[in-house]
Amino acid sequence: MAEIQLQGVSKKYSPKDDRYAVEHLTYTIPDGSFVSLLGPSGCGKSTTLNMIAGLESVTDGSIIVDGRAVEDLEPHKRDLAFVFQDYALYPHLSVADNIAFGLRMRKLPKAEIEQRVREAATKLELENHLGRRPKALSGGQRQRVALARAIARRPGVLLFDEPLSNLDALLRDKTRAELKILHAEIGATSVYVTHDQEEAMSLSDRIAVMSAGRLEQYGTPAEIYRTPATEFVAGFVGKPRMNIVDAAVIGPHRVRLEGTSLEVDVPDADLGERSAVRLGLRPTECALVAGTAAENDGTVLVVEPLGNATDIMLRIAGGEFVVREAGFSSFAPGDPVRLDARAAAPHVFDAETHLRL
Ligand SMILES: Nc1ncnc2c1ncn2[C@@H]1O[C@H](COP(=O)(O)OP(=O)(O)OP(=O)(O)O)[C@@H](O)[C@H]1O
Ligand SMILES: [Mg+2]
């Protein structure tokens, strides 16, 4: 049982820094949930996680676990376990001893330790490797040992910092699915740092999207994807990346893509007195029709077949624009095309504040 509340949490690594590494983070990680901290390199994900762990001090604000402020508690007095990117296994200890290490430190009875090691090893399919040293294991197996060590502790909170990033793509996808099953089984509140939006979307109950030390949005994967709160979130989540272009306001709820004839209804956006906005359209929701030299919205720049879909990059007046078609495409570089966005859910942002309208 562990609910984690961040209340105005800020971090400065040195009093001389003019900038906070993270600033005014306020949100609640519900008991038993899986929450990802998502954002590009340097946005403050690890800093946030390390403050929850107690590995870094909190400069301002408070971290409250189950109603109790923990920012002054030593890490080992917090009921949590950490899984690092580099696994941090003890090279001179066997797999079994690595898994048992934290339990021995806590002076659990021997029989209890043995039982927990066996149980964690079974969950992570390590039964046959218990006698080996970490260097005799593959990267994926080492990752499992690190996970087994964490869950053997049966902590209220599990913290992960990019735990899959050293695995190859295939193993990463497999481990991701296993992690989801594991979380459902053990139910510990999990906080998971990643810069991979797909990983965050597929694993999480909620995602905290961060940029430059600030929280951009905190919500479920569906909320983040369907109603991104800022232009940053819109561009960061979703693959291929959302097209976000300048658009002129031509009616109370209608805009036109800069330099094209494409007009889009934006029934849900409050455009106010604005004459120009930023318009976001997902590549998967747009379509192309053949144009002519005289009438087109742009020309095809690159065609990228992927098997189940084809990404077509266009040059339009306002810049570049990507459309994803199903299957293989009949368009070729140089073709003049017209854009069709009738099936798209448009996203509209203020041109200055970049906030959703
Ligand atoms: N020990 C430190 N001393 C000083 N500044 C630091 C320290 N650790 C991180 N920073 C700075 O704080 C900011 C946030 O760093 P942090 O490591 O939290 O980012 P991150 O989102 O985890 O990035 P990455 O994806 O690259 O791991 C960065 O500007 C970084 O340079
Ligand atoms: Mg980091």
TrEMBL record:
Q: Does the keyword Disulfide bond apply?
A: no
| One Pfam short name | ABC_tran
Xref: Gene3D superfamilies: 2.40.50.100, Nucleic acid-binding proteins (2.40.50.140), P-loop containing nucleotide triphosphate hydrolases (3.40.50.300)
Q: Which GO terms describe its molecular function?
A: ATP binding
- InterPro entries, from UniProt? AAA+_ATPase, ABC_transporter-like_ATP-bd, ABC_transporter-like_CS, ABC_transpr_MalK/UgpC-like, Mo/tungstate-bd_C_term_dom, NA-bd_OB-fold, P-loop_NTPase, Transp-assoc_OB_typ2
Q: Where is the ABC transporter domain?
A: 4-237
Q: Which keywords accompany this UniProt record?
A: ATP-binding, Cell membrane, Membrane, Nucleotide-binding, Translocase, Transport
Judging by the UniProt lineage, the source's domain of life is: Bacteria
Against PANTHER family, the record matches this protein to: MALTODEXTRIN IMPORT ATP-BINDING PROTEIN MSMX, TREHALOSE IMPORT ATP-BINDING PROTEIN SUGC
**What's the protein name?**
ABC transporter ATP-binding protein
Native species: Brachybacterium hainanense
Q: Taxonomic classification, please?
A: Bacteria, Bacillati, Actinomycetota, Actinomycetes, Micrococcales
